[in-house]
Amino acid sequence: MSRPLRIEYENAFYHVMNRGRGRENIFLSDNDFKYFLHCIEQASLRFNIEVHSYCLMTNHYHLLIKTPDANLGRAMKHINGLYTQYFNRTHNTDGALFRGRYKAALVDADNYLLHVSRYIHRNPIETNTPLVKDLVKYKWSSYSAFIKRGARPKWLVRDFIFSLQGKKRKYAAYKQFVEFENNKEISAFYSAKKLLSVLGCEDFIENIKDYIAKSDSERKLVAKKHSADDVIAYLVQHFNVEVDEIITVKKGRKEKNLPRWFAIKLWQDLSGLNLQVLADIYNVQHYSAISKTVGRLNTLMVEDKKIKLQYEKLRNGLMSEVKI
């Protein structure tokens, strides 16, 4: 059986979903729900993704994600992998937690994004979840934040959804839309036995086909894996530093060690190595230190466009010079 179509490009919107293996529960306690939200927050910092709606149920989840950097696969691998490690460690289990690869429907934002957000937020009552009669009271969804009845996670983006309504009373208008309006086309899309990879109008689908045809060679290049030796050799040569300057923690130093930071992010993006392997290479005790370093660099790139441009040049140069 062929894998579902994966289409990635800058600023694309996706409805992402996954459920537990054998329909088993993936959230057993409030702490589990909270940790999954933590995983989303970490992914938003590390991969620069935007989360526009979410709903976590006991045995599955829904996310509405925008990818400014065309990296949905890496972001979801991080979320699912990090949460699975936590779940197995916390509940003394092992093996796969989810039923397989996540499902992701590419969404035509102009015509369907508002309806997808509605579908996600109505999930607790549409699935007949026990004891859930009022959407506002379901705390593992972003709905209460959208109608200003609950706290908003700092990584949750609402303004674009609100802009699609074109109304001044955005909170009340969104509540009215979610609780009383319906769309038969959306209902038919999600009730199909096999979820399609694209939810969009004919023009949108044609544009996606053009993108696939034009960027096929580029997408294959991005998919290639770079070895750790390739990455470090490239950084050592570019910055004219010793290997030790990159792989060794310099205690007591307060200045930014950009060669090391760039190396960690490049290795993570291109080498295919997991966090624990990178932690061992960089001589840190816990893999969370790797995530924190990448998070600091991501923040720095947002604040300083020159740093972001420097990273992009390094990444492009590495991809073009290193032969796999």
TrEMBL record:
Pfam families: Y1_Tnp (PF01797). Residues 227-297 form the Chromosomal replication initiator DnaA C-terminal domain. InterPro entries: DnaA_C, Transposase_17, Transposase_17_sf, Trp_repressor/repl_initiator. Residues 9-123 form the Transposase IS200-like domain. Transmembrane segments: none annotated. It comes from the Bacteria. This is Transposase. It comes from Pseudoalteromonas neustonica.
